[in-house]
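Researcher: We plan to redesign the surface later, but first we want a full-length starting point. Tokens attached.
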């Protein structure tokens, strides 16, 4: 049975490597596919470490000893952020990984503690500060690896929940992303069921002696198989153009645009266009266009001119027409052409500027 289960782990590692290569080389949805490929790589490395432990790889020859001690196979703290950013990238195909996104990966330092510990021990050993053998150091690493699984589980769970929150109100075309998060949620439940007894010495030692890590890593291997195959196929079917925006993301974009218009008065710039508006908002142009068209039912020009006309109307009602001409107010509000202003005013107000003044009792 152990040979059979070990074979499943090995095949899972090979399949994970193939999936990573395919996803990283895919030209469709490059950002999303690379994030998914990185997530599968995290799973594959952890599985490979466990399989190597069972096969005694890390004690065979100098090269494998160095690999086993100095390569960080467990980078589980990266799994949650990668899953979360993958969901973001799928919902918005023009998502770009920015410097501020790196903060999500700071907790990966917890995964590096065992490797850092080995490095410190080797340096101290070279200077004669510690004795050969390192039994106490090894015991520390073993104990650390047991208890660090608690923050690892919490981290992945928090990011999975954040993914579900982001997906709230998403269109039906995001079915794969729902399946993706469902698969991770199921695995988190399995992990928790295994985590609790493993954290207690008595039950943990019994499980390791009789079951090893298979109750956790076989489901992890199945997850890797499924993510690799289904994720790659889904990426080939997912439309390239257009952003799959959730209601939350759309509302956030709308609030950002409103701030730029109301507080910064961006509409007063006569050259303001989609590209400049998106740049000021820090949002992809396709996202801005999609929000305006699908959620507000307006073109970019209609949206910008709406603020310009509103400002002109407010100034007219305040008596601005007595001090300045209507044309002057139009130019101050961002229009660079009087005919364009008159057409926009009538299209939005239903009346001409002159009729608006008469209707308002100003003239």
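Model: Full-length starting sequence:
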């Amino acid at each position: 049975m152990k040979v059979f289960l070990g074979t499943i782990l090995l095949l899972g590692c090979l399949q994970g490597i193939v999936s990573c290569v395919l996803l990283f080389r895919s030209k469709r949805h490059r950002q999303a596919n690379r994030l998914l490929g990185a997530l599968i790589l995290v799973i594959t490395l952890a599985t490979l470490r466990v399989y190597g432990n069972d096969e005694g790889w890390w004690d065979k020859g100098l090269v494998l000893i160095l690999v086993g001690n100095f390569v960080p196979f467990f980078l589980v703290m990266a799994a949650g952020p990668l899953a979360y950013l993958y969901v973001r990238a799928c919902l918005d195909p023009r998502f770009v990984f920015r410097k501020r996104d790196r903060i999500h990966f700071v907790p990966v330092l917890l995964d590096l503690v065992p490797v850092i510990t080995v490095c410190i021990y080797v340096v101290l050993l070279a200077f004669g500060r510690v004795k050969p053998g390192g039994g106490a150091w090894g015991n520390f690493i073993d104990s650390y690896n047991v208890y660090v699984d608690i923050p690892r589980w919490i981290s992945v769970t928090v990011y999975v929940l954040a993914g579900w929150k982001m997906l709230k109100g998403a269109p039906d075309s995001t079915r794969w992303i729902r399946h993706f998060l469902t698969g991770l949620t199921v695995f988190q439940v399995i992990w928790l069921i295994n985590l609790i007894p493993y954290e207690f010495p008595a039950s943990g030692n019994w499980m390791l002696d009789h079951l090893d890590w298979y109750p956790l890593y076989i489901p992890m291997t199945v997850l890797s198989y499924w993510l690799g195959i289904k994720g790659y196929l889904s990426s080939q079917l997912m439309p390239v153009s257009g952003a799959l925006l959730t209601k939350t993301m759309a509302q956030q974009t709308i609030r950002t645009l409103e701030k730029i218009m109301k507080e910064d008065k961006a509409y007063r710039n006569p050259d303001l266009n989609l590209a400049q508006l998106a740049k000021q908002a820090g949002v992809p142009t396709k996202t801005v266009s999609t929000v305006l068209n699908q959620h507000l039912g307006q073109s970019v020009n209609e949206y910008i001119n709406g603020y310009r006309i509103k400002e002109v109307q407010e100034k007219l009602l305040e008596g601005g027409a007595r001090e300045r001409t209507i044309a002057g107010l139009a130019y101050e509000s961002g229009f660079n052409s009087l005919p364009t202003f008159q057409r926009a005013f009538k299209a939005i107000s239903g009346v001409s500027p002159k009729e608006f003044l008469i209707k308002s009792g100003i003239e």
